[in-house]
Amino acid sequence: MSPSPKICVVGSSNIDLISKVPRLPKLGETMMGHAFHMGYGGKGANQAVMAAKLGAQVAMVTKSGNDVFGADTLKNYQAQGIDTTWVFFDEKAASGVAPIFVDDNAQNFIVIIPGANMALSPADVQKASSAITNASLLICQLEVPVESTLEAFRIANAAGVTTILNPAPAAPLPDELLQLSDIIAPNETETEQLTGLSVTTIEDAEKAARALLQRGPRTVILTLGERGALLVDATSVEHIAPIKVKAVDPTGAGDSFIGSLAVFLGEGLELRSAIRRANAVAALSVTTIGTQTSFPNRGEADEFWERVRD
Known about the structure:
The chain has 310 residues and is an alpha/beta fold. Helix content is 36%, strand content 21%. Strands 5-4-1-8-9-10-11-12-13 form a nine-stranded mixed sheet, with helices on both faces. Strands 3-2-6-7 form a four-stranded mixed sheet.
């Protein structure tokens, strides 16, 4: 395997503002909460941190506000060993935040305010083109303007860099973006929204994946949660079984899968093996509360794999 693959992530950075409350408040009500927690999030940030924890050389292309949350986000990337050369700051928009209220029954209420994430422009991406062209893989999501994601994929395609599109949250996609995607990796809900097809059964999932393939990507990896993943390309289909664990908190599992998949592919594993390893990392992440804090480091991930591999 190739050591320390180079991965570039173009995507979002958020601060999660989590309040624990006895119940979700009514309109106009003031309520006393149990606890407050602030964490680092955003799909792009999560995937970058996951890749870095597994030992990859990661460059992050993102935009935060020129505020305390933006400064803290930068420090978090630096603490994770991520290249922050292309972490931009916007003078007008605030950093992206996600106020989250969680009640005693684990029901939640979430408001995502993207802020400066939506100010990441194609021009910003062009400035960071060296981070993309020097990488072996590029990961993008849909929490920044689609025009910026498309620009990143154009740069990667011209340089022969493998592209992974995590179409989350689901949104209308230009055909060009799909045609520039080597791998598209949606979950069940995103697949249904992108294709209009149900993903109730494995057979349904294959049908929906083939509908996505017709729009241009080379490979579809449909993540199915506790049912594993479905790998579909022009000539084959394979259902890859999940790793069974007792889940405590599934938050961020999809991001841990994407970030670790990129690492294992960058290390030279063939796609099926990379998916199995990424399934294991995602499974391990749900056994601990939190998002980035639940992501295993390389030693933990390798030890777990040795216990669960066939």
